[in-house]
Amino acid sequence: MTVDLPDLAAMDAFGARIAAALQAGDVVALSGDLGTGKTTLARAIIGALGHTGEVPSPTYTIIETYDDVSPPLVHADFYRLEDPAEVNELGLEDYRAGAALIAEWPDHAGGFAHEPACLAITLKKVGDGREAVVTAGETWQGRWR
Ligand SMILES: Nc1ncnc2c1ncn2[C@@H]1O[C@H](COP(=O)(O)OP(=O)(O)O)[C@@H](O)[C@H]1O
Ligand SMILES: [Mg+2]
To answer: Which of 33, 39, 40 to mutate to test the pocket of ligand 1 (most atoms within 8 A of CB)?
Structure first.
């Protein structure tokens, strides 16, 4: 499925749509080149879940957690990982327990598309806006239209 995201308002609406369906155990995997809007979409989702504070890009920290929203959320940016095995050292599985994960650069962590609760989104630039190609995992089928 392809979603047109011509501007930031469309990004906010798309984020709200994802947030409304989001459950603990889910992964929202955000792929796409630098500057295609992965962090922007993550912020839209986290904001729609009700978080009112800042949402720093996890570029350097790799993992940011949000326990003030439901489901609790982990926002990760795996760009800086040199080997997917490093996700184990980060303790990602512990962070993920009882939480949903938004993952930028999922391929650098070995990928999540094999998980049935993965919503895989690839963003690309189209003119001044963006386009998202969405692949919904098995457990997203009933709640994603
Ligand atoms: N749908 C959109 N339309 C136009 N500009 C966008 C859209 N989504 C994001 N942007 C802009 O693209 C730039 C890069 O976004 P960012 O989320 O930091 O990208 P990434 O995390 O993929 O590197 C920001 O200036 C942001 O405002
Ligand atoms: Mg980013």
So the answer is: 40
Ion ligand 2 neighbours (CB, 5 A) are: 38-39
Q: Among residues 112, 122, 123, 119, which one has the least CA distance to residue 137?
A: 119
Give per-residue burial for 8-31: e unless 16+ CB within 10 Å, then b: eebbbebbebbbeebeebbbbbbb
pLDDT in tens, 62-101: 999 999 999 999 999 999 999 999 999 999 999 999 999 9
Tens of pLDDT, residue by residue over 110-138, are: 999 999 999 999 999 999 999 999 999 99
Provide the CA 34 distance to its chain's centre, in angstroms: 15
Distance 130 CA to ligand 1 centre (A): 8
Domains and CATH numbers, the chain: 2-132 (3.40.50.300)
What is the reported pLDDT for 145?
Answer: 67
From the CB of 38, is ligand 1 less than 6 Å away?
A: yes
At 124, the amino acid letter reads K
